[in-house]
Every structure is written in structure tokens, then in C-alpha cells.
Amino acid sequence: xxxxVTIELDRAVRMRTQALPVNVQTKDKLIVRIKRLLLERDAxxxxxxxxxxxxxxxADETGGCVSDSLExxxxxxxxxxxxxxxxxxxxxGETAKILNPEKRVFMPNLSATCSLDLGxxxxxxxxxxxxHPDRVVVVYANTSAAVKARADWVVTSSIAVDVVEHLAEQGxxxxxxxxxxxxxxxxxxxxxxxxxxxxxxxxxxxFKERELAKLKAVYPEAAVLVHPESPAAVVRMADVxxxxxxxxxxxxxxxxxxLIVATDxxxxxxxQKAAPGxxxxxxxxxGAGGACKSCASCPWMALNDLExxxxxxxxxxxxxxxxxxxxxxxxxxxxxxxxxxGDIGRKIHGEGRA
Length: 354
Ligand code: 13P
Ligand code: SF4
Prior knowledge:
Elements: H1 2-18, H2 24-40, E1 43-48, H3 53-61, E2 65-67, H4 69-78, E3 83-87, H5 90-99, E4 104-106, H6 115-118, H7 122-130, E5 136-140, H8 145-149, E6 153-155, H9 160-169, E7 174-177, H10 180-190, E8 194-196, H11 209-218, E9 223-226, H12 232-235, E10 240-241, H13 244-253, E11 258-262, H14 268-274, E12 279-282, H15 306-315, H16 324-349
Parallel strand pairs: 1-2, 1-3, 3-4, 5-6, 5-7, 7-8, 9-10, 9-11, 11-12
Bound molecules: 1,3-dihydroxyacetonephosphate and iron/sulfur cluster.
């Protein structure tokens, strides 16, 4: 399992280093071409906060969406376009296809995977569930369609605590997969009886408690914002813990002017726009002279670039397909999450949750 992650990680890093840098004129031409192609193909661009800022601003400028995994999933179901282009990682493209079978879904690079998805192979996961038939199966969105098809609930980081709380109130025991750190955080927060899979995000796992404490000593007035895929010791140091959208909202509303942020650095583009006067500092990964592999930048998210996006639109290549039997099964727990999100949004805000 770990070797699959290493192989895919090396592959992504190789692909990145082989990509030629794009000069300003070429970049401008690519942007014009992509805008034209999105219109011609009746396609919406849905981008995650960790992708290249060029793609994020293109999504914004063309009526697409830039968001966390939950909102990415919801956007596709609301947009009238016939085609979706998902700039993110594989599970995001699959989720869009599961929810929108009538649409064609494309991705700039189908090799963009996720260590959590890779670390949770469907057969092994299914056997794990079979061994614990008394437990409700809750899986993180960062999983394959086949793993989702085995689940009772799918959740993203912005709604995981609410769903597990809801299940715990009903006295349900839970299987949680694949992110052990997020699972541990939810378990501590809700007190739910959760059996955890042992997956991890190679990006968030690299944030270091000791280095973060040193940084915090330099900026004692700073607030610490942490994505819950980070190790427990780092999560415990946080002033705010949340999904990418929740962290951006916190950056906007917190009184602190300096923010130390423990998540992929792609988030800084939108976070800085949301909180223009604030100083944003990356939480430390490997530490000075220490080794970090991802260094706060997801190697798979980085595979999304202007050239691959233009080519995908031009050629109609990199289409996402999901086996129909798996899709139909995976839709049930995904739709359950979206309905639940709608319900709590209505309770809290009197409308769909932001
Ligand atoms: P969000 O849903 O918080 O955007 O997280 C997705 C992800 O892959 C984080 O690593
Ligand atoms: Fe997966 Fe981590 Fe990359 Fe998010 S940042 S897509 S969890 S590897």
C-alpha cells in the first residue's frame, strides 16, 4: 500500500519537473483559448483551492467555481452546463460524475490522485467492513467510487463532525476511513465510537508540531489555522480547525492580523484575497534542513495546469468514467451527505449551507 503511494508520488513529481515553464505571452494565449473553449463546449470549470492560481481565477472569471470538496460536489449538480471540467484530484472528478451521470466530466490530468484514495483499496476495505457488520460505514470523500459504493455515508471535512455527531446521537458505532488523523480529530470532538482505517495525507502529515511551536514563539500574536488531516499534535495547537473553506472564512473573520496556516499552500491565493491586509505564514513541514516530500504542496493537485486544461478541452480527452453499478451504489451515501448538508444549512442559515 505505502509503495503505491511512493510510486504515484514519484510519477507526479517527474511529470511536474518535465513540464516546461510557460512565458507570459503563452500564458495569456492559453487563457484566451481556454475561455473560448469553455464557452464552445458548454463546460464549467470547477477548481479546488489547492490548484494553481491561474486555474482558480479562470474558474472565477468564467462562472465556474473555486471551493472545497463539498461545494465542488454541489456546484456540478446546480450548474446547467452539459460538461464539467474538474481541476483537482481524481476523487473529485469521480464525485462529479457519480452525481451528474448525464454530464460529461473531464479532468486536466487523470493521473492526479490522492494518497488517501491510494491507501484504501476497495477489496481490502470491503473485507474490513465485512469483519465489523455492526458498524455504520462512514468514508471521507477522498476515496475511490468503489469505496464510496461500500459506504453508508460519504463526508467531506466541512461536514464530517456534524454527520458523526448525528450518528453518535443515535447510538451508532462507526467505521471511519481512510484518514486516521481526521478520524482521530472527529472521535475526540464527538466522543463517537469509531474504528479507524490507517490512511494519511502525505501533505498534511508533514506539518511538524515542534517547528510550529518555534514559529509560534516568533509570532506569539498569530492565530494558527489547521486542516484536520494534520497530525493530532498539530491540530491541538490550532486556534481554528476546519476544511479549506472554513479556514478561508476564519482568515477573514479572526481579529488576528497574522495567521499561520497548516494546509496546502495553494489556499493562500484565495485566503489572501479574502483577508487582504493580513500576513499569512506557511506552517513548517520538514523544518530547516529537514526533509519534506510535499513541502505543503500536493503533488497531484499540481498536475493541473493551463496547458493540460487547454488540451483536455480541445481534444475532449481525459474524460472520467465510473462503472454504472458502482456509480449507482456510490450515489446513495453521497446524496445522503448532500441532503444532510442541505438540512443543516436550512436549520442554521434558513438556506443551503455555504
Ligand atoms: P477540503 O474538502 O477541506 O477542501 O479538503 C480536500 C482535501 O483534499 C484536503 O487535503
Ligand atoms: Fe489527497 Fe492530501 Fe492531496 Fe488533499 S492534499 S488531495 S488529501 S494528498
